[in-house]
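Data availability excerpt. The first of two example chains:
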Amino acid sequence: MARFTRIEVALKAKETGIVPVFYHEDIEISKKIIKACYDGGARLFEFTNRGDFAHEVFAELNKYAAKELPELILGIGSVLDAPTTALYLQLGANFIVAPSLNPEVAKVCNRRKVAWMPGCGSVSEISLAEELGAEIIKIFPATQVGGSDFIKAVNGPMPWTDIMPSGGVMPTKESIASWINAGAYCVGIGSQLFTKNSSNEYDYSQIERTVGESIQIYKELKNI
């Protein structure tokens, strides 16, 4: 069962602004990654459903987060259908992120009052997603659907729409500012956050610093 309501998810996304997006099949590496992000100030984290037995890794990761990182809101991404949604809700996912818009996923999430962030690429899809109860709309792939100009254009006639771009967001002031100034609610950042050292191992200290710096940039832009 989710430990956080969909309203808590939406409010925390607005407060911290940066949602790390990550997958690895190794549970110990995944634990170190989410701890580095947590120590850097991240409070939402999207683990992606991309590899074989990803649900088993997520189950252990969620148990670890609940015990060791109590303020972390851990969700699952790359969820395409209702059965997969139900599986991850049973494992305690606090939010569901999808690359596409599937009304059946919305129904499963709404029955449990769990946050659902569908991937949309048009105003019609965004409008339907909001009718289906989505608080935050993911635009994906963000750069390819029109980048920050797309968000600005949508927010003209639909100022109530809260958008999270994912795909193409960089952990730099220039990149984050371009999205936030266009009206993004928060941003999802993937591989660019997770730097490696000369030994090709994840540099957890640098990851923590990059997350912290990215959140600070967001807060300065939002005057938080």
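And the second chain:
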Amino acid sequence: MAARILFLFASLAASVSFALASDSKALQDFCVADANAAVLVNGLACKDAKMAQANDFSFSGLHLAGNTSNPVGSRVTPVNVAQIPGLNTLGISLARIDYAPWGINPPHTHPRASEILTVVEGRLEVGFITSNPENKLITKVLNKGDVFVFPVNLIHFQRNVGRGNAVALAALSSQNPGVITIANAVFGSTPAISNDILAKAFQLDTKVVNYLQAKF
């Protein structure tokens, strides 16, 4: 009997811990972001629900191709809470990614979201890297209509390996997933990381580090 009671309490504790670890559920129909609010919260404050209108929940222009004439040959068009205020507190967002031939979406992470990517046009090589110590590369070539998932926080990338332009749509599990592009963050931080630290971390000559920092 004592063992059963102990098991019951252990199960209850585990359930409570899981509940506390998950996102809280919305307590109202919606919370349209008030970009002008003076109150600082973890997210954005809500404007008066009576002032909500259709434009707070819509975005136009995702059919337009992004300009890929840049060094990496890709362009991300985000649709998050900055574009749709009505996404506030809903925990979802979207992005369109355009790729020139052999264009890449460079290695990056989303600190607050997992991502599910669908190829709309073209052919993409995609992949992500597991955490230390394995650092295993999980990669696949996707064709039109294929879907791939990138787990939250893991470094991932895409590359156009088709003959023409490619387009993908990405859904993310956060209203504001954030993005950390590895090369930009490491070699383009403000102020810059000391070149001797980077030289030792990447096993490079400091002259090479200086060159890379100048690029970013």
